[in-house]
């Protein structure tokens, strides 16, 4: 239909020139909707070659199978023709320069590979032309040679693309060229462009009729008139496009397209308005999100983390609704930082400095992933927490020293804690240190009272021991030594301001004076008793024997001494010798008794130490042992005294048991 309603006239000239055979080839096919024109120039050293003919026939054949004006169609035709030439090559490698034109009677495309050429004239002037695929053409493009020497340059046949190329065959395919009535398309081979200048061709086609044969004849006459010595094969074809196809439905299609375009435009406008509104809302949300993010950062910089958490939470919800992954990540990092700081601040305010320290450490780590926001504040709070922990460490060391009974060292630690708390202006820590000091001083006062009580008990025991010794000496008539014991007891009581002990010593001294008086009275009667001394001496010796038999060594010694004194006074040497031997035996036994007394006293002293240390069970067991020892010694007074102490131990133990643990 298109071919019938258009006018395309084609004419061509193809001659062997000075050669024996013509290796150029031109052919075309005009279908109802498409037309294809192909010119080829065989590339060979042989006198006769089928390269050009095979190439043109292959292209036209492939075009007829699937005619179209698309780049893909032209490329497929050329690629298939190139493959055909490569496959049918035998002794001779078939190669050709090729140029083809495809048209739908309204527009055209041209494609080329090699150095055959295409020119399009419009209104008598050159409109479009092809470019050779040769090294010479590249030199022209690089301004290394001028275009007017291209037809004579030695590299004009050095082609980088041609039909029959085994690898990297890349032909040139033009864009779509819109045709108008009167256009002239010209195809020609190297036999033409090597011998005629482009200006000559332009002049020939500048003014012509609607018959393509006329300019071709003029061109051939000009070529032959120049009588080139080595005129190669030459071929030229002219397609006069006197009338292009005009589609009768084009106006209706144009109007329909305009309507569709208007509808599409309106739809696009509506969509654009909707998109703009959505975009504006999105931008508003994004702006509000960014504003809250900036507010979050400002609040963190102002150390207002409660407000920062509110702003960050709102900004995060907006970022999630906007699906802004980067903002969600950033705001989550800010929130983790804020939560850590708030938790650490709460722990700090509650004086839980261990948790606060860990919280600030966590916040400092999270600050690295939150643009290092709040780093200065966190570091400052971390330093303050470390100061409080230092005070707490001093107090803890003081407590440990107190537990070990090292009150002096504990006081040093508490004083250090108080001084450091004052240095860092930590009022709460200073109060804790002062409370620890007060507790320490109470413990020291209690320890002092207990020590004084122990000392008083020990002093009372020493005074009682001296008086007891004096009493014993007084009983045996050793008044001088007894007086010394009583005086020593008085001096010890006076030195320690023990009024009761001093009073007891003075009473003992008065008692001693009475004993002395009684001894003096007895001495006065001694003469009167001289006569009865023999009888009394024997009786005394008998008493001594009886006391000795009963382990009453003191009584035995007293009896023996009394008897010895009487016998000595009576000058009875034999009896005196016997009594002296007995007294020696008594002395030996007395030493053993003294050792046992000392052992009883030592056990009593050890029991007193246990009692002073409030080890009531050990004290009670030890006092019971001491009481048995005194009973064995026959010292009922000491045994009774220990009995009193045992009652007191039971009372104290009951009090301690009742106290809360």
Automatic annotation (TrEMBL):
- Coiled-coil parts of chain: 430-457
Q: Which UniProt keywords apply?
A: Coiled coil, Membrane, Transmembrane, Transmembrane helix
**Which top-rank group of organisms is this from?**
Bacteria
Record-linked InterPro entries: PPM-type-like_dom_sf (IPR036457), PPM-type_phosphatase-like_dom (IPR001932)
- Tell me the first and last residues of the signal peptide: none
Q: Could you identify this protein by its name?
A: Serine/threonine protein phosphatase PrpC
Q: Which residues cross the membrane?
A: 260-279
Residues in domain PPM-type phosphatase? 8-241
